[in-house]
Amino acid sequence: MTTYATPAAVVAKAPLPPRRRRPPARARATYALTVLVFLLPSLIPLLVFVIGPMISAGWTSLHSWNLIGPMTWVGLDNYAHLLTDPATHQAFLHTVFYIVGYLPLVYVGGLALALALNTRLRGRAVFRGVYFLPVVTSWVVVALVWRWLLSPSNGVVNNALAWFGIQGPGWWADPAWAMPSIILASAWKDLGFVMVILLAGLQTINPDLYEAASLDGAGWWRRLRSITLPLLSPSTFFVIVLSLINGFQVFDQVYVMTGGGPNDASRVVVQQVYDLTFRYGQAGMASALSWLLFFIILVITLIQFYGQKRWVNYE
């Protein structure tokens, strides 16, 4: 076998990759200023309405303040009190109960709608608009409608159950049914949003995969479990993250439908923040509770992003 040696001169004369010249400082400053100008329309509201109030709330959480008189420095006493306060523990438990009931209901319902609208259904555009309409409706309006529908005395739901000889529950007037009433209304309102996200994910799945699975004898359930759900995992992850964040911040529907009652059976964390601030004049305590809620949401979200590597398929 003949071997050929590369001459040393050829190796020595091999061209080096061109070195990228660093732009002058004036050009870098001009580019940074241009980027800043384009960011200002969104950066200024972010600083004024989000970051600024967060910093202010963090400072307030270290004080005792009734919104009228001067602040009194208490350090971490507000946080220590909240960690041992039974009312705060109860509010967190109610919030977790809401999430546990809301998240599966809104995901399964949204997935069912997305699967139905992903087929060749006549009038799909109309159905998509109808199902998405509650999403853009004010929470106050939705909560008032559901409060009327679930009225224990003359509500539509209990009247319909009475036709079949069923005694309807007390719904939002009953401590045992207050939170399920809120969960039902919340899931109904958010179904359209989850449906749109999952429908977009379904439309990115290659139809050839379903055809190949059908030729191999896979039924509907097998295709759903082995193809649809794994390839829909990025959309599922997005829905779960947003739903958990929104679930921990639930307030509007609680305030309108039950006001946290009856007997504090539906009092959630944000309701507790509201009451501490405007009913009891404990703005420092309320700020501390809001920061505790922020840290809990942050930790849970970081855990979700860390765990997505094990079950989310981006290929």
Draw up the topology in text.
Layout: H1 8-12, H2 25-60, E1 63-64, E2 72-73, H3 77-83, H4 86-117, H5 124-132, H6 139-149, H7 156-163, H8 178-202, H9 207-215, H10 220-231, H11 233-248, H12 252-257, H13 269-278, H14 283-311
Antiparallel strand pairs: 1-2
What does this structure look like?
The protein is mainly α. The chain folds into two domains: 23-60, no CATH class; 77-311, MetI-like fold (Orthogonal Bundle). The chain is 68% helix and 1% strand. It has 14 helices and two strands. It has helices spanning 8-12, 25-60, 77-83, 86-117, 124-132, 139-149, 156-163, 178-202, 207-215, 220-231, 233-248, 252-257, 269-278, 283-311; strands spanning 63-64, 72-73. A two-stranded antiparallel ribbon has the order 1-2. Helix 2 packs across helix 14 (283-311), helix 11 (233-248) runs antiparallel to helix 14 (283-311) and helix 13 packs antiparallel against helix 14 (283-311). The two termini are 45 Å apart. The model has no long low-confidence stretch (mean pLDDT 88).
